[in-house]
Amino acid sequence: MRKVSIFGATGSIGQNTIDLIDRDPDAYDVVALSGGRNIAQLADDAIRLKAEVAVTAHEDLFEDLRAALTGSSVEAAAGSNAIDDAASRPADWVMSAIVGAAGLKPGLCALEQGATLALANKESLVTAGALIMGTAQKHNARILPVDSEHSAVFQGLVGEDFSSVERIIITASGGAFRDWSLEDMARATPAQASSHPNWNMGQRITIDSASMFNKALELIETKEFFGCPHDMIEVLVHPESMIHALVGFKDGALMAHVGPPDMRHAIGYALHWPERRDLPVERLDLAKIGQMHFRAPDPKRYPALRLAHEVMEADGLSGAAFNASKEIALDGFLEGRIGFLDMAGVVEEVLTRLWGGACHINAEMTLDTVHETDHIARQTAETVIAERQ
Ligand code: NAD
Ligand code: MG
Fold first, then answer.
1. How far apart are CA 11 and CA 15, in angstroms?
2. Which of the listed residues 44, 99, 105, 213 should we mutate to test ligand 1's pocket, taking the one with most ligand atoms within 8 A of CB?
3. Is 302 contained in some domain?
4. Strands of the sheet with 2-7, listed across from one edge
5. In angstroms, rounded to a whole number, what is the distance separating the alpha carbons of residues 145 and 236?
6. What local confidence, expressed as pLDDT, does residue 356 receive?
7. Which of 9, 214, 313, 361 would bridge 33 by S-S if both were Cys, CB 3.0 to 4.6 A apart?
8. Is residue 367 part of a domain?
9. Is the C-beta atom of 97 inside 6 A of ligand 1?
10. 10-residue block means of pLDDT along the chain (389 residues)?
11. Same domain, residue pair 7 and 136
12. Is the residue at 110 inside a domain?
């Protein structure tokens, strides 16, 4: 039986992972599940899957979790240190599906104990790409991408020599506002930004899709995961979300990964790798679909993409500053303190101040320097938002 753990088990990716495990429960020995405030879901899944331990991120919810687990053999734990401890428990395969920078440390703990890390938490690679890839190498641990575009590129590279790759194209649906004018985008509300035309995802990543901050993070994620120069990576708007990525080779060939917009495909590929097994996803009928559309992203409506290229060029700790300021700008938008289009302006201003000397962006990357940069960027973003109000 394979020992598996799922961090961020109560979220969208976590629940899709559990859906796959539930279909073949005898094949898996569940070590740890982690969640946030949804204690009922966490306890329910942990009891059904006979997990060793269930951890909530919130220390104040420890008693609630313990009560919900009464009568079962599942241990209760709470707090971010407890999540790290659970990630250090021996497992063969660990799903990293916490949202945001909070996913970094548990991912590192899983790699340090040699587990294969199925990485949905793109923020880990954006904030600390060199650290996470270096830790995997040092402990001889494997990282498998779970973001659909990166899984698609990974699959497109099977059997290929990376030196024959000319370009990598990741697709973007264009999110909730792909056909909106700039004026309407400026007035958009969180509720409007929270509905995605194709994918069913957590709220934060759905809003990041509408602003293309999600695609900006994915550009950086591509550079860090595949170790390629930033100008090799392109974004293509493809409203149907059926082609997830294309790999362009030196001979002009483009290898496209085509599949329905269902995260269980990328999760299942990482779960069963290197095999392919039957997955409960729709089979596309291309004759019925008839046509697919493509266009270049409009740089005026999606400044996050330009910022991502600047961050990749600056390298070092810039990714940590980018991600942290983006998280605070998103909070600011959700709280009604700034408008939808102001998010990119806030992030750009933070980067300008940090690159201008407020932070040692070129210091050696360690967990401490990443945390310090994250902290300074968050504070600077709060200041920038307050100045705009
Ligand atoms: P979600 O909001 O649905 O779930 C997030 C999970 O993380 C929940 O279990 C929540 O309790 C937990 N969590 C939140 N804050 C935490 C904290 N501070 N400490 C510990 N746990 C915390 O998010 P999601 O859509 O499932 O996304 C998870 C990750 O996967 C993100 O990094 C996202 O970018 C990435 N991803 C998601 C999708 C998708 O389709 N949803 C696709 C590609 C990549
Ligand atoms: Mg993606």
1. 6
2. 99
3. no
4. 75-78, 53-56, 28-35, 2-7, 93-96, 116-119, 143-145
5. 20
6. 85
7. 9
8. yes
9. yes
10. 98 97 96 98 98 98 98 98 98 97 96 98 97 98 98 98 98 92 95 88 92 98 98 97 98 98 97 97 97 96 97 95 97 97 98 84 90 96 96
11. yes
12. yes
Question: Could you tell me if 7 and 116 lie in one domain?
Answer: yes
Q: Are residues 138 and 245 in the same domain?
A: no
* Sign of the torsion formed by the C-alpha atoms of 272, 273, 278 and 284: positive
Q: Report the C-alpha gap between 69 and 375 in whole angstroms.
A: 35
Q: Which ligand minimizes its atom distance to the CA of 222?
A: 2
pLDDT of residue 198: 84
**Residues of 173-210 as b/e, b for ≥16 C-beta within 10 angstroms?**
bbbbbbebeeeebeebeeebbbebbbbebbbbbbbbbb
Q: Can you give the CATH number for the domain in which 138 is found?
A: 3.40.50.720
How far, in Å, from the CA of 286 to the mean position of ligand 2? 22
Last residue of a domain, one of 245, 273, 289: 289
- Predicted pLDDT at 360: 73
H or E segment and range at residue 374: helix 367-388
Question: From CA 340, how far away is CA 356, in angstroms rounded?
Answer: 26
**Domain range for residue 384?**
316-388
- Residue length, the chain? 389
Q: Which helix (H) or strand (E) holds 236?
A: strand 233-237
* Strand 165-172, strand 233-237: pairing: parallel
Ligand that lies nearest to the alpha carbon of residue 150, given by its number in the listed order? 2
CA of 207 to the centre of ligand 2 (A): 13
Task: State whether 362 and 338 are in the same domain.
Answer: yes
Same domain, 68 and 200: no
Give the DSSP letter of residue 197: S
Ligand 1 atom 27 nearest Cα: 99
Token duo for residue 57: 């991120």
Nearest-atom index, ligand 1, CA of 13: 26
Over its C-alpha atoms, the chain yields an Rg (Å, rounded) of 20
- What pLDDT shows up at residue 358? 65
Ligand 1 and 13: CB distance under 6 A? yes
Report yes or no on 372 lying in a domain. yes
- The reply to whether 126 and 55 lie within a common domain is yes
| pLDDT tens digits for range 210-239 | 999 999 999 999 999 999 999 999 999 999
Q: What domain count does the chain have?
A: 3
